[in-house]
Amino acid sequence: MDGAPDHCFQPDTCPGGAYAARGGGGLTVGLYDAIQTKETLWFGWSGQQHEDAAKRPVQQEQVGNVNYVTFDLTKREYDRFYLNFSNGVLWPLCHYRTNLIRYTREDCDAYYAANEVFADRLVGLLEPDDTIWIHDYHLFPLGRMLRDRGVKGRIGFFLHIPFPPWSVARLLPKLDMLLAGMAACDLIGVQTPEDETNLKGCFEAYGLKAAVEAVPIGIDPVSFRQQAIESAASEEVIKIVDTLDGTRLIIGVDRLDYSKGLPERMKGFAALLKNYPEHRGQVTFLQVTPVSRGGVESYRLLKEELDGLVGTINGAYGTPDWVPIRYTTWPIGRHILAGLYRMADVGFVTPLRDGMNLVAKEFIAAQDEDDPGVLVLSRFAGAAPEMPEALLINPLDAEGMADALHIGLTMDVEARHAAWSAMYGEVSRNTAGSWSKQFLDSLEAISPCH
Ligand code: GDG
């Protein structure tokens, strides 16, 4: 994987906000804006493992106002806290995929124990009045653990993934303990009004009081747009576009994750070729899908399914001089991806559930204003309520997706421009920087309850 900052992509979310630390993702960009102006401690997992819990190294690096402190997980913590419980229990639960949950008491205990390690390490680094912002489902109980260690300052928590309603969430053993962990925070941010309603319902079910607010995350559209313009003119991207041989381009970009509706997307594309044969030989679907969480069984099975589907569709519709689906399971540098978004006629974003989905926003930011592409977007992406001008689809309905792709591929420039400019307006209004500012302003406005 390329390590240069503008290519830096870690195909996963990591506990402790170490989300491709200082890479190009929306979270880091959003936080970056907020933290540049104040003395800030960035604390989280290093992404590395160490054999010996007692001897694991702590990495520390000061860059400008920001002190980056990260530490290694042990193999046991990585397996049980990170893979098994965070990604094998909490992730499917929060994405409404209860049949994929693999719960054991031992993994649950390891999750809480790892959060205690985070709390122990963090508390020694804090100043008395520090404001703390915790990120994501790996660290649900951390707020409570910090309070137990005497932390009195403001604590905020932001959940990047969806939160299910009580009827689904209650499947989790010790849900009350998890919610009590979050309720120790002064403010809990979620992506959408639906998540807000669901989480509030769960707190009410246990008689817990917590402030929950929907604060949808954004991207940095100005810099992404600039990157897309430069990238589209680069030799690397021009070379790729040349190989398309004049065919129209549909693009999909996602971590290889069952929440992203990837097999469904392939079936939608196949339905386009079946129901609208005029597009055969005229369109190429490029799906960029870096493998993630290969240590979790459901992810390995998904990859097999996807590999099979791509082969089947290419075999059924491809010709000696045309490959319908181009598919990679490794990441592509952001400096190339941005240009490919810009050159694409359709952005194809089909999650079954997604906290937000930054790809939808990046696709819009990257478009050429005079000849913009069309966004086909799942109703179940957190981005959908902000982007009603997209062609909204249900990923279970292959024929419906085929209709939307056909509409997108044949839409005239006036209609494309009208939809794009409305969505670009929204992406420009609610940016990564305004997201972190709104959250931190709301947190500051609350008088600490602990
Ligand atoms: C979680 C929530 C929420 C993807 N492939 C490559 C690549 N990417 C970049 C995209 C985008 C990011 O990764 C993916 O962001 P998403 O939002 O789509 O999805 P998750 O990773 O699941 O993120 C999600 C997000 O947190 C933020 O709150 O929106 O709902 O699940 O930036 O461009 N980047 C590069 N090469 C790739 O191959 N360079």
Question: What keywords describe this structure?
Answer:
450 residues, alpha/beta, Rossmann fold, 2 domains, six-stranded parallel beta sheet, 16 helices, 44% helix
Brief summary:
With 450 residues, the chain is an alpha/beta fold.
3D architecture notes:
With 450 residues, the chain is an alpha/beta fold. It folds into 2 domains: 5-218 and 432-444, Rossmann fold (3-Layer(aba) Sandwich), CATH 3.40.50; 221-429, 3-Layer(aba) Sandwich (Rossmann fold), CATH 3.40.50.2000. 44% of the residues lie in helices and 15% in strands. It has 16 helices and 13 strands. The protein has helices spanning 26-35, 75-94, 105-123, 142-148, 166-169, 175-183, 193-205, 221-232, 235-242, 262-275, 297-317, 334-343, 358-366, 398-410, 413-429, 432-445, and strands spanning 40-49, 58-63, 66-73, 132-135, 155-158, 187-190, 212-214, 248-253, 283-288, 325-328, 346-349, 374-378, 391-393. The strands form 3 sheets. It has a 6-stranded parallel β-sheet with strand order 10-9-8-11-12-13, with helices on both faces. Strand 2 (58-63) and strand 3 form a beta hairpin. Helix 10 packs parallel to helix 11 and helix 12 (334-343) crosses helix 13. The chain is globular and about 65 Å long. The termini are far apart. Mean pLDDT is 91; it is low at 1-24. Bound molecules: GDP-alpha-D-glucose (GDG). GDP-alpha-D-glucose is lined by residues 9, 13, 25-27, 160-161, 217, 253, 255, 288, 290, 331-334, 337, 354-359, 362, 382.
